[in-house]
């Protein structure tokens, strides 16, 4: 094995290739890290700003040292954060698109959830250069470059017959040769990873997992390339290269595209715009309904406030927030159906991942990085919970028309992003 | 130049491909890939087109079926516009998935486009989408490399190149012959694609111009690649050197540089998060004047001026509804602030674009993609034009409603008045059109320039190396 490695590293083009790959692996890690660091600073900044803004609000909206709960619901925004975890840099996934800070107020939630972040859309379209991308797309190419002509190169140098006659245990010989190459490939990917993890003092659990994924994936391609290039008649190097590139194209581009096409036709998801349109209709239609038409169904949901003072004036915040919430309630089945369809798509992807190694790696890494659609939905769930918490906090003041004191203001719920475990 | 040896060399090359089988197989593979891509892209396009049609229909229906209402209610009810699509999106969908395709237009607010499908994509969405545009940009060069990396190197190794040169065929004729052999099949493919796309989109606006530009860029791009392949093949002494060099060029130009440049632009000139921008706009609005606050200085002055203009002493005595006037003035002020905010955001994106354009020569693939995106109406410039049009429509609509508020609603009975639904049904709601290709002029110019440079460079290289032998 040592000899094999020596032989390999004697070739200048091989050393160049390995060095270049090492640099690119490090770059992919650094780039992912930079993106996540940017998100982190923005979140930190937003958190600091949020507390200042809330103090500001307290200063400017006081009337006789109490606040109007209705005004507070309408004017005060609360930040919700889609915080990355330590290992999110490994696969940026949909973090590239989703807003990492959103502002939520007490109005209907469905009208507030779907705003995009103000990224450069062309940048998002081009995609990120992160470790997952690099591994999924390029480790196969590296394997092909190193392994496509195992037999063919010997044949070309007119050594193959000679070699065959010398070998006592040909299996062992080729095994060593292949393993040496695999080792080199594995080093290209894992060495910068380990160094990076050590440098930033990251937790070892995910590191081991990512390493295992990397090793398995590169091993898979190594075996595939070996099978092709050690085949009895595999004496034409460029034919092997082409065949393997074809397989790569099939596995990393063509099949994922076809799979996505299949997924989208078999598991259709109602376009989100339909929810926005209906939400608007429900919220604004409510102004034309009578007060009781809104409040009776609302009180059915919240019987504890049925006996609170009735709404007699033209406008009252309790009626206003009640119809905002009722719009969400009426839309709930559609929203759930939509989320279910998205989950189904995700599960279908999971099933497909057992057949497509590239997809499997992408998914596993996104699980580590928590940047998949599952995590997006979980994040939305969290926002919903926060919104509910907020409503339940403010409702007593609205419905019982209690004064909202400064003291109460300090106890307003704050969004706590579930830290990744 | 005597044409016949060039032609003979090209024909010979094809004959050799035919006998080697592998190139024929590769070309078949390319065709299959292209068919799948066309199918997938059509499906993708159809999805979007259906959404746009549904939203437009539904929002039109919702708008028209509004009952008698107070005009200010209507302006809060708001209007939806969906981003129009050019049929050529079927070749290059560009930023359709990333930019969001729906804008909610309402009073005192400037909403961004929301609902981008990219957010909710599964891991499968992280794989590059296969579209005819992608095939030209990525896969045609790759297949070209596979088919022809050996084209001159093999002749060199077999000694036939020296033989040909010895027989008095000038190097430039050999080079032209090889280049033609590579380029003509692709020319045919691209022309077929353009013909098909032309039939598909001939009724749409600027179809011929857009298609022409796209075809021009694709031809320049592939011509450059053919030149590069022949040049590298001529330069290499060994087959695998040629293959590796070409593959390296491909990986850098098609994959690493575009992504790297976009990332670099994002890191060097980060955009302000939306929540921040919104907050700053709100702060600014507070300093401008609060239309709901009767003691506000700006609106006090406005009131005095209005009273003077009509020669009355109380707003109640005005012949029109003062509340409506305040709404109009308020909308004017808020719109100015939001448009300023939008301009700041656009400036941030423009900075990123400038950086990418500055380094665009590194990646002709990206330049080609820019031309394709611009000609199919799916680049940033078209998106921004859409946002501007939507905003113009919003302002016009809201001011129309405020006007109705001013003249049709009596001030004394302001809150109890409902205005006839016919007023909404006849409200001005300009159709939002796809912008003309003119909006992407800068990008197009830079990209085409890069592509011109891109065919000159390999030709120069080829000329140089062919002189050596």
Automatic annotation (TrEMBL), chain A:
Q: Where are the transmembrane segments?
A: 131-150, 182-202, 208-230, 242-262
Q: Which InterPro entries match?
A: DUF3526
Pfam families associated with the record: DUF3526
Which UniProt keywords are given for this protein, alphabetically ordered?
A: Membrane, Transmembrane, Transmembrane helix
Question: What is this protein identified as?
Answer: DUF3526 domain-containing protein
Automatic annotation (TrEMBL), chain B:
Transmembrane helix listed as a keyword: yes
What are the record keywords, sorted?
A: Membrane, Transmembrane, Transmembrane helix
Task: Establish whether keyword Cell inner membrane is in the entry.
Answer: no
InterPro entries reported for this sequence = DUF3526
Residues passing through the membrane, by range = 25-45, 138-158, 179-199, 211-235, 242-261, 444-463
Q: What is this protein called?
A: DUF3526 domain-containing protein
Species the sequence originates in: Methylophilus medardicus
């Amino acid at each position: 094995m040592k000899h094999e490695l020596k032989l390999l590293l004697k070739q200048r083009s091989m050393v160049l290739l390995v060095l270049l790959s090492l640099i690119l692996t490090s770059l992919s890690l650094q780039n992912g890290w930079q993106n996540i660091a940017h998100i982190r600073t923005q979140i930190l900044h937003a958190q600091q700003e949020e507390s200042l803004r809330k103090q500001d609000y307290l200063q400017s909206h006081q009337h006789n040292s109490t606040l109007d709960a209705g005004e507070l619901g309408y004017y005060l925004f609360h930040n919700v954060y889609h915080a990355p975890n330590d290992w999110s840099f490994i696969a940026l996934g949909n973090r590239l698109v989703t807003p990492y800070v959103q502002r939520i107020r007490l109005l209907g939630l469905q009208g507030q959830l779907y705003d995009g972040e103000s990224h450069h859309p062309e940048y998002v379209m081009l995609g990120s250069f992160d470790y997952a991308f690099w591994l999924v797309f390029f480790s196969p190419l590296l394997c092909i470059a190193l392994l496509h002509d195992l037999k063919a190169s010997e044949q070309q140098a007119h050594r193959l017959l000679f070699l065959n006659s010398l070998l006592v245990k040909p299996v062992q010989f080729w095994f060593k040769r292949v393993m040496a190459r695999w080792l080199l490939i594995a080093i290209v990917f894992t060495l910068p990873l380990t160094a990076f993890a050590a440098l930033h003092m990251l937790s070892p659990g995910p590191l081991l997992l990512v390493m295992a994924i990397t090793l398995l994936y590169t091993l898979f391609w190594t075996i595939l390339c070996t099978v092709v290039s050690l085949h009895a008649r595999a004496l034409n190097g460029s034919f092997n290269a082409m065949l393997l590139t074809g397989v790569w194209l099939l596995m990393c581009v063509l099949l994922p595209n076809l799979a996505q096409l299949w997924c989208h036709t078999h598991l259709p998801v109602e376009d989100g715009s339909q929810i926005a349109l209906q939400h608007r209709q429900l919220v604004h239609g409510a102004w034309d309904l009578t007060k009781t038409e809104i409040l009776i169904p609302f009180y059915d949901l919240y019987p504890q406030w049925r006996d609170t003072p009735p709404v007699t004036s033209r406008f009252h915040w309790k009626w206003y927030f009640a119809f905002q919430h009722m719009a969400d309630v009426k839309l709930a089945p559609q929203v759930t159906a939509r989320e279910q369809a998205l989950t189904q798509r995700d599960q279908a992807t999971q099933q497909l991942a057992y057949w497509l190694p590239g997809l499997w790696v992408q998914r596993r890494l996104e699980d580590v990085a928590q940047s998949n659609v599952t995590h997006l939905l979980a994040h939305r769930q969290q926002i919903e919970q926060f919104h509910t918490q907020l409503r339940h906090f403010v409702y007593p003041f609205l419905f019982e028309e209690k004064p909202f004191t400064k003291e109460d203001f300090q106890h307003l719920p704050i969004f706590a992003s579930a830290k990744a475990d | 130049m005597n044409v016949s040896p060039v032609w003979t060399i090209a024909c010979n090359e094809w004959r050799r491909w035919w006998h080697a089988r592998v190139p024929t197989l590769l070309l078949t593979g390319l065709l299959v890939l292209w068919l799948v891509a066309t199918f997938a892209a059509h499906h993708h396009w159809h999805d979007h087109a259906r959404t746009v049609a549904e939203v437009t229909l539904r929002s039109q229906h919702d708008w028209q079926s509004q009952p008698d209402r107070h005009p200010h209610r209507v302006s809060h009810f708001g209007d939806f516009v969906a981003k129009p699509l050019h049929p050529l999106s079927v070749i290059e969908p560009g930023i359709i998935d990333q930019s969001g395709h729906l804008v909610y237009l309402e009073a005192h607010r400037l909403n961004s486009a929301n609902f981008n499908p990219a957010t909710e994509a599964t891991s499968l969405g992280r794989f590059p989408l296969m579209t005819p545009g992608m095939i030209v940009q990525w896969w045609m060069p790759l297949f070209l490399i596979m088919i022809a990396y050996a084209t001159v190197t093999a002749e060199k190794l077999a000694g036939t190149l020296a033989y040909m040169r010895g027989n008095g065929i000038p190097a430039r004729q050999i080079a032209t012959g090889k280049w033609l052999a590579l380029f003509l099949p692709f020319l045919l493919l691209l022309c077929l694609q353009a013909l098909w796309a032309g039939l598909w989109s001939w009724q749409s606006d600027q179809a011929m111009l857009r298609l022409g530009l796209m075809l021009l860029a694709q031809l320049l791009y592939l011509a450059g690649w053919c030149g590069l392949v022949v040049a590298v093949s001529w330069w290499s002494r060994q087959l695998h050197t040629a293959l590796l060099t070409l593959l390296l060029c491909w990986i850098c130009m098609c994959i690493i540089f575009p992504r790297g440049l976009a990332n670099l632009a994002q890191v060097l000139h980060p955009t302000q998060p939306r929540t921040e921008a919104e907050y700053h706009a709100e702060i600014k609005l507070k300093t401008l004047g609060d239309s709901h606050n009767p003691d506000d200085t700006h609106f006090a002055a406005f009131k005095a001026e209005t009273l003077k203009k009509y020669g009355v002493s109380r707003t109640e005595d005005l012949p029109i509804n003062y509340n409506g006037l305040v709404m109009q003035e308020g909308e004017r002020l808020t719109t100015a602030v939001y448009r300023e905010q939008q301009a700041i955001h656009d400036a941030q994106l423009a900075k990123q674009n400038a950086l990418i354009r500055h380094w665009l020569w590194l990646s002709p693939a990206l330049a080609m993609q820019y031309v394709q995106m611009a000609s199919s109406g799916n680049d940033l410039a078209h998106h921004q034009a859409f946002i501007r049009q939507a905003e113009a429509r919003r302002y016009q609509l809201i001011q129309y409603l405020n006007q109705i508020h001013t003249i049709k609603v009596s001030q004394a009975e302001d809150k109890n008045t409902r205005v006839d639904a016919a007023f909404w049904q006849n409200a001005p709601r300009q159709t939002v059109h796809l912008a003309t290709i003119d909006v992407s002029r800068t990008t197009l110019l830079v990209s085409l320039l890069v592509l011109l440079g891109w065919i000159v460079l390999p030709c120069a290289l080829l000329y140089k190396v062919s002189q050596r032998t």
